[in-house]
Amino acid sequence: MDFLNTTSDDDIKEFYEQYGGALQHSPNPFFDEKWYTERYPDVRERICSGEFKSGFDHYCKVGFWDKSPHWLFDEDYYRRKFLDFPREEIEKNGFRNGYDHYLKQGSRLNCPSSPFFDPIVFLAEVPDFVVEPDEGAYISFLKGFPDNTLNDKKLSWYFDPVWYQENYPDVERSAVNWQGPLHHYLTNATPEAFNPNAFFSEQFYAQAYEDVAGAVKHGAFRNCYEHFVKNGQYELRQPARDVNLRVYAENPKIKSEIASQRYPSFFVHYMVHGGVVEEGGYSSEEREFISKAVYQEMCRIRLPLLLRGGLDFSCDQPELSVIMVAHNNFAMTMTALYSLRENYSGQIQVVLVDSGSSDEIRHIERYVRGINVIRTLGNVGFLQGCNAALKHVEADFTLYLNNDLELMPRAIETALARFVKEPQAGGVGAKLVRTNGLLQEAGSIIWKNGSVCGYLRDELPDSPEANYVRSVDFCSGAFLVVRTDLLRRLNGFLEDYAPAYFEETDLCVRIRELGWDVVYDPGVVILHYEYGTSGNTESVHMMQRNQGLFIEKNANYIATRYPRNAQKDLLARSARAFEKKVLFLEDFLPFRHLGSGFTRSNDIMTVMVRDLNCHVTVYPIFRPLSITEDIYTGFPDRAEVMWNKGLEDLVGFLNSRPGYYDVIWIARTHNLDRLAPVFAECAGALAGSRIVLDTEAVAAPRDLQKWVLKGETPQHNLDELLQKEFRSAWFVNRFVAVNQKDATILRRLGHRDVHVLGHLQQAHRFTPSFKERRDILFIGAIHDADSPNLDSLIWFVSEVLPKLDDRLPPDVKFRICGYLNPEVDVSRLVLNPRVEIVGRVNEVTPYYDTHRIFVAPTRFAGGIPYKIHEAAAHGLPIVASDILCEQVGWQAGEDMLAPATGNAASFADAIVSLYDERELWQKLRYNALRRIARENNAEAYTAEIRNILSQFSQQSGNEVEGFSLTS
């Protein structure tokens, strides 16, 4: 790295080598000795031990690959952004690292050296700055630094020096220690105490994103802002309480400007424009007009291909009959039929009504084989055409399908599956998306005055509110599947509504009044052209006439609906009356594969939805970074999953749903501290809601165990820790403990309304025998470096497994399954050749059914480990630490083997006994299964959750200003 050795004076070099390093002198402008040793404390320790002469000595010899040499250069940032090649490739091209490449090439190309020095931004700010030939702005800047005339100039998008000096005047007064505001920000000893600009808050970001706060605490990032500029801004995390990037990024104009690369990120765009969106371009009506024109043109372009290939709906015994009414629009009709044929490979009967067409639809049989065509004299309209076609239907299910739409993947399959999953479903409707990409409807609402509306019209199709299954008043006839026997019983659409409007609304109400359900299924997605004919005088007159007719015929049903009000959408969106509406707050979305209590949370909310007729909104404290396929497969499909929100959005969310929730279910005690100020701010919106705290596990005893295990003196006694843990429980109405031990602690703290809810398990009685199994199993999640599971596994691998070498066959493996945070170092677990790390598995049963022993060598824990009950339910005998045996309340030696916690020799003896002794294995298996059947059965579990959600006593809670916590 030639630039790092620029001094030509031999005397200066000699002085530096003898004294300069020890005095923390920098050898040249491109390496900052003082900053380097302060930024990397481990380097300072190695210098003090005499291993290296200076930070510069360390950097040149070993630190150059993973450490940055100067506060204005970020090695990781530069390599990821501009030099994303393997180390071997970089070295093969003559560069030692990113900095070497930057000083030789990147600086001359005016590439940013870090988020805080962007030559393009700097030179635009200081156009008269002199850049030496073949150097670039970075090298010239460092050679001339410091220059006090540049203190108020921006060096990049991400730091505002003027704002910084105004908000931190002490920095300017102590300028003798700092070479300008940016130097202070990037080198001060308390980086979390300062914000870089008006749009980012260290305090807010750390509170909103505990994962980042933890990473900063462990040294992965200097402060929260470093994480944000490198990662968080691209994940659309919220940088400050009043800066919502996710909402900002939904604006089409801003999206187009980011796509054109005028700005590097939505955050930069926000800062430049102060969060103000300058409206321009096309209106929403103009955009929809253009999108429809494009759709029509695409149908025209596609038509020759469809005519050339032809379509075939020939069938013997149709699984589905489709009724389509077409009046002209041949190209669009062919597109709809092609979409139907491609969507479902099963047998489909198509009954097409040619309603007086004058285009090529008159000869559609030339291009589509196997369809039934009914031709009418003139345009009879949708209603009469459908009723004429109903007489020809042969399948058990009938689909009303418009000719101006396309079906998204698996629409038919999903709709038919809904009837199997929900036998009371009489009709199933779709999520209709218009050509402009916005919703036409996600189910529809009937109001008390007889008017109707599509729920969430003009909203985004992927919004959580549009993506859970609901019972609704009605669904659009553009795509509506109905049981054929029901249609015949009801004689299809009522002819009174001819020629159009309110016919499918009336049909759905009549289906519901016969005791059947009408279901909106968001997995059925349809792209709908949606003809705009409702604006002409004739259609307005027909609509008004048929609305009056609809009110007259369905007065009793309409009387039960909500008055029309935009704020009533939430209540009116579902036609089902719920026992309770529950807001379920968890650390993260409770996917089963996460383990660590999330499986139990998943069970609880599943029982609420599936068995107790509750509407459940699942809301994570920490917003998911991205939507994944798990979002809508990991939870009951009738649960509302708020995948796009987090703690920072909760105030606005609660205030948007005043009085909506009967119960707020809080998972894990540590969330009380985070939620208390939010609930206080939203007291009016929460009036009448009851607060349930599901402790999941009382943490104080576990913390004491951990301190003792590490040989540390506890900073507090148990009572002090408990008081601290439950200091924000004053607003809780009802407590849930996972076992009687925790319940006793809660009562001792003075909480009277305490329930016990363990784990839900179903005993698997018929599983492989002793002889059919081999190997040792552990299933559990590892979320962070402080995980009890990680501690127990490291201990087990290093202390217990070696004691089995001469006592078990060498080919006996120890497999570790379960979620593994990729940022956690598990290298110590693979040092033993018996260990195999499987990681997350989609189905655990095959592992339980093939292994002979389950081990849980936990050394500190709270609550009840789910893995104990799960292993026992699968008929796999257990060797677990005695603290776990105590937590589940089982009998050592009868229900499981429970060697003393942390006693490696006893643990090894127990494993050998259970692995070799068939009679012992069978006894433990039988007794544990009996325990599961008695203590964890579904009926008792469901009954207890119903009890927890039931009427609260007057003494169960507190009263605070504007927020009633009693019934």
Automatic annotation (TrEMBL):
Pfam families noted in UniProt: Glyco_trans_1_4, Glycos_transf_2
UniProt superkingdom: Bacteria
Signal peptide: none
Domain annotation Glycosyltransferase 2-like: ranges: 321-429
Classification via CDD domains: GT4_PimA-like (cd03801), GT_2_like_c (cd04186)
InterPro entries named in the record: Glyco_trans_2-like, Nucleotide-diphossugar_trans
Protein name as it appears in the record: Glycosyltransferase 2-like domain-containing protein
Annotated organism of origin: Acetobacter tropicalis
